[in-house]
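Budget justification aside, the reviewers requested a transparent look at the raw inputs and outputs of the sequence design task funded under Objective 1. We therefore reproduce one unedited record. The lines immediately below are the structure tokens for a 899-residue chain.
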């Protein structure tokens, strides 16, 4: 029996209480129907995550996976995740693990986003190509059965952390269709993802849990036949934080009506809210049936109700085993980006002696969505293993060791607590300016505020939802001697740190704290650098501290202390290889000007050290390409909460100012060239023949990229990636590559006709190895039929061509409306009204005027309807207000008088 039939029959036999018991992620058992208890959810961004410490294969962060630009490889990665999820499911007694929330495919349109490491870049085409293959690998290729169900997230417009649970993002219609929604499309239309997670944030006034686009786009347009979940705790937040609804019953009813099938929230809360919504007529049993049937259909495909799922016959030895490790190694190698290599310093020669310094030289740090790999090979350890003893000059973490005084008394650890007492040295790690964490050197454990206010020893790694290890040092700290400074500190929660009953404790009167440097980490690094031919400096971020979920970055600079370390090492040894181990782009302006060799790698992989050693010594080629633009300055960037990437550019699509490293950039050890032999336009497609040649005596791997841009059109048009392929060439090898691009790849979303169509104008093609590729062909596109906005009964007020001082919000009836600020305006070009007069509904809170085309109308506080004449020809509708107003609609007028 097909899964759809199984789900339908089960729903027909369930009681209403049993149906409601299946609406949360903690789904109850219904033994009489063979439905076992099951827990929906879990994480798998770059490997299956077992929060209890079970070993699974650990891949690079998703931003690193994106830098491979290798869809075929990402399908292998997805298959590993799916296989290990199935093994964990079987090991758990079939209670969970098959419905994991991945991949994250939100757009990386701003380098300050705290969750930058979780997604696949700033381009929707690249994201579509890569995430599609990850999903296909995760779910398997059996037409009747699923290996697991992938859940792309977070739909949609989710790119800022601060305020995400309580605010809405204004996204104009064209930007929504071409960019934010587009990134999710192939996940459903081609990969048939069986689940999806909505975002916390609102879009155009409506929280994504209740956004109409979930049903209208994902389920109706893309024909998604799986189930949709809310983000974690979103039902609670919808009422308590967003204040969109007053009751949970209202919130859950609206979510289910708009396409959410399963709530990631407290089971009792969900079920109580659903029962109340049903009893009050806010929700019907038929609507509950739809949600439950969607979930059970996927569970049937996963094999929850039969014993014949072929994926259950998996070799359990694959879990965190050598076969999967080899794929992790390949993914790690291919994501490393060579940013600079002056004088061919890389690859290193075996005859050169090296030292490895920096806070990330010999440590592996985990992000919040990381699992536990079977091992972790650090950069320093791996390099030491490949060098002879005389060539290895040592490594250091470059952290200072300090003693601490509070109120002129030394601080130490006594019975696990931080107290006043004898002198003791601590390792101080500065991952962000004016912030540090302390480590007890004897135990290797971090000091943390324990919830009662006292500081005590905690874990040997920083890994919690709240980083209570952080000490925020005031910027007015005073240097008292060359090796010490005095100041005050606050906890992670901004509470003063002081002393009570001999204990160092939060929420006390602030005490003067003196940090006395007992050992300089920078001096140790400089000493090592002097003794070696090459100094490898490993810098970057800690993914749990400076930039993460709930925390956006105020700056893209390296921490001041890391930059100072780099400068002092370079001063004594100019042969520096800088390795950035990171979660996002950095401003490397100084390094790019001075340091001869720079590499970037993402965190997360169990194979990081081995991969970097092989690339540094040339056993393997660096072949990664940046999946987002790297800037040297962000002062010009729009606010992170500004989502109109067209009018306020920040991605390569529209941004035209110089950047540090462009999208798609990455050097190699080889020298591949691309020569366009043929570029034609025929039968609704562009065809191109490119000759690639490796001009060097080394193997070369590079990614050929094709971009297009339409110019001389009456709308701003993006430069956009339309094709890419990763190519391997032997020394001096030559290869011809044939490319075919359908013209629809250059289409745009026309807000007047509300559909994608081809623009008129000149089509320019660019071919090369980054978004700054060279122009290689030009064509004149055929003139399209006139783009006309035809208005019969009503004008879609959200289909404006241009705007100023406007945004989309909701009114008291939860309907989207446009809010114009003082002197704000809307423009609707090429509009043809089928009636002679129309009525606009306006709500104002003060006296003012609203101009419709060239005529002004007075507005007064409250709601009013204004009729205006429309000419019997194409016209531009221009609406401008002198004071703040809400525009609720433009409809056919039945009376020519203002009401």
């Amino acid at each position: 029996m097909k899964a759809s039939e199984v789900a339908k029959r089960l729903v027909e036999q369930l009681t209403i209480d049993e149906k409601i018991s299946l609406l949360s992620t903690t789904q109850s058992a219904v033994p009489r129907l063979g439905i076992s208890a099951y827990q929906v959810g879990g994480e798998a961004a770059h490997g299956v995550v077992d929060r209890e410490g079970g070993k699974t294969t650990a891949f690079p962060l998703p931003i690193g996976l994106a830098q491979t630009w290798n869809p075929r490889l990402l399908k292998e990665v997805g298959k590993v995740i799916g296989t290990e999820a199935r093994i964990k499911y079987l090991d758990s007694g079939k209670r969970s693990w098959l419905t994991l929330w991945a991949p994250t495919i939100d757009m990386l349109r701003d380098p300050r986003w705290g969750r930058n490491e979780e997604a696949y870049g700033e381009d929707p085409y690249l994201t579509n190509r890569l995430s599609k293959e990850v999903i296909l690998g995760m779910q398997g290729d059996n037409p009747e059965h699923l290996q697991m169900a992938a859940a792309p997230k977070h739909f949609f417009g989710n790119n800022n952390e601060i305020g995400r649970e309580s605010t809405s993002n204004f996204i104009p219609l064209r930007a929504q269709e071409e960019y934010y929604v587009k990134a999710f499309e192939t996940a459903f239309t081609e990969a048939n993802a069986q689940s999806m997670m909505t975002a916390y944030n609102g879009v155009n006034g409506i929280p994504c849990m209740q956004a109409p686009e979930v049903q209208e786009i994902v389920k109706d347009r893309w024909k998604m036949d799986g189930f949709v979940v809310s983000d974690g705790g979103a039902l609670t937040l919808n009422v308590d934080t967003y204040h969109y609804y007053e009751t949970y019953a209202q919130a859950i009813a609206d979510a289910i009506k708009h396409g959410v099938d399963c709530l990631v929230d407290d089971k009792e809360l969900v079920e109580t809210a659903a029962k109340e919504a049903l009893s009050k007529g806010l929700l019907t049993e038929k609507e509950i049936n739809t949600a439950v049937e969607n979930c059970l259909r996927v569970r049937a495909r996963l094999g929850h109700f039969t014993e014949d799922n072929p994926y259950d016959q998996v070799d359990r030895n694959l879990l965190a085993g050598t076969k999967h490790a080899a794929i992790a190694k390949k993914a790690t190698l291919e994501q490393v980006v060579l940013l600079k290599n002056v004088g061919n310093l890389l690859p290193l020669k075996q005859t050169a002696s090296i030292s490895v310094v920096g806070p990330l030289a010999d440590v592996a740090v985990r992000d919040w969505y990381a699992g536990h790999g079977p091992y972790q090979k650090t950069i320093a350890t791996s390099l030491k293993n490949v060098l002879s003893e005389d060539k290895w000059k040592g490594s250091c973490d470059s952290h200072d060791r300090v003693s601490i005084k509070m109120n002129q008394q030394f601080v130490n650890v006594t019975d696990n607590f931080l107290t006043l007492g004898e002198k003791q040295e601590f390792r101080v790690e500065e991952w962000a300016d004016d912030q540090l964490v302390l480590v007890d050197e004897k135990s290797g454990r971090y000091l943390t505020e324990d919830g009662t206010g006292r500081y005590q020893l905690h874990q040997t790694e920083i890994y919690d939802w709240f980083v209570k290890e952080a000490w925020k040092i005031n910027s007015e700290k005073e240097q008292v001697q060359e090796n010490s400074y005095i100041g005050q500190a606050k906890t992670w929660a901004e509470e003063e740190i002081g002393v009570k009953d001999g204990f160092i404790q939060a929420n006390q009167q602030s005490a003067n704290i003196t940090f006395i440097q007992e050992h300089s980490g920078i001096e140790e690094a400089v000493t090592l650098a002097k003794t070696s031919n090459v100094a490898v400096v490993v810098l970057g971020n800690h993914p749990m501290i400076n930039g993460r979920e709930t925390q956006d970055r105020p700056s893209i600079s390296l921490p001041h202390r890391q930059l100072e370390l780099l400068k002092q090492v370079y001063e004594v040894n100019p042969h520096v290889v800088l390795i950035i181990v990171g979660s996002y782009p950095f401003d490397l302006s100084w390094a790019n000007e001075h340091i001869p060799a720079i590499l970037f790698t993402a965190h997360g992989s169990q194979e990081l050290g081995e991969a970097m050693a092989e690339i540094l010594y040339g056993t393997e080629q660096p072949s990664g390409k940046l999946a987002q633009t790297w800037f040297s300055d962000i002062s010009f960037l729009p606010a992170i909460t500004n989502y109109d990437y067209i009018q306020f550019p920040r991605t390569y699509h529209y941004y035209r100012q110089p950047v540090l490293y462009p999208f798609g950039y990455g050097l190699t050890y080889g020298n591949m060239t691309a020569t366009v032999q043929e570029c034609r336009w025929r039968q609704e497609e562009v065809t191109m023949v490119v000759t690639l040649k490796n001009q060097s005596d080394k193997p070369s791997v590079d990614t050929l990229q094709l971009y297009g841009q339409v110019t001389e059109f009456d709308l701003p048009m993006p430069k956009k990636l339309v094709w890419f392929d990763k190519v391997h060439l032997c020394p001096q090898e030559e290869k011809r590559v044939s490319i075919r691009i359908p013209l629809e790849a250059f289409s745009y979303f026309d807000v007047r006709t509300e559909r994608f169509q081809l623009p008129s104008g000149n089509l320019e093609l660019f071919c090369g190895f980054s978004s700054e590729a060279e122009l290689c062909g030009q064509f004149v596109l055929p003139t399209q039929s006139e783009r006309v906005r035809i208005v019969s009964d009503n004008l879609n007020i959200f289909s404006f061509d241009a705007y100023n001082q406007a945004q989309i919000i909701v009114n008291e009836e939860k309907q989207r409306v446009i809010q114009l600020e003082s002197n704000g305006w809307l423009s609707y070009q090429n509009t043809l009204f089928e009636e002679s007069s129309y009525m606009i509904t306006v709500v104002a809170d003060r006296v003012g005027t609203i101009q419709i085309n060239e005529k002004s109308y007075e507005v007064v506080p409250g709601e009013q309807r204004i009729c205006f004449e429309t000419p019997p020809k194409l016209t531009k509708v221009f609406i401008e207000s002198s004071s703040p107003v809400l525009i609720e609609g433009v409809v056919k007028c039945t009376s020519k008088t203002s009401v």
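The chain has a mean pLDDT of 94. The longest strand covers residues 816-833. Computational costs for records of this kind are itemized in the attached budget.
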